[in-house]
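hey so i finally got around to running the thing on that chain from the lab meeting. sorry it took forever, my laptop kept dying and i had to restart like 3 times. anyway pasting the input first so we r on the same page abt which one it is
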Amino acid sequence: RPLSHWPRVEAARRIGVLLQDEDAGFWGTVEEYVALGRFPRDGDDDAAIDAALVAVELPSLRRRFLATLSGGERQRARIAQVIAQSPQCFCLDEPLTHLDICRQTSIMQLFRKLGENRTVIAVLHEPRLARLYCDWALLLFGDGRTRAQIDYLYEPTPDELFNTLIPRHVEIQAFRALLKISDERHVRRAD
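ok and heres what got predicted. didnt touch it at all, straight out
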């Protein structure tokens, strides 16, 4: 049935959304913020909240006010909130924003693991991380064209990726990869 026909609570139980930006005006603690992800699950669940905080390496900041965190810490709290929601499908719009390279890698590893038994769809601007952690990509060009590739991100060098997939005559306003992270049987990793 179409998503528009689902009751809102059912949709919220099935689909977790991490928007690109969010108002930073939340007044409470990190723990209270993450607990909001449990709302469609009929309230608090301390184990799910604790697990989400551990997953993003924030348990020591649980009692700090969200507004006092750095941009990267706040982004990890946002990710913890959607993880605490326990959806069947994660829809993530630029989940790596404000994160340093080590945190970007750990978050991609986290969603890789979560994608073993759930669907993860993400918009990324990091083709290197897409190449390492994702098994399907849809490249969106600034002029509205798209190009779907299944294994292409696993074979070429970065120069080949850009020279082959992105024609030189096209001015690219944005390079985005819509990624579906799913089971590892189809993934060949570059080591």
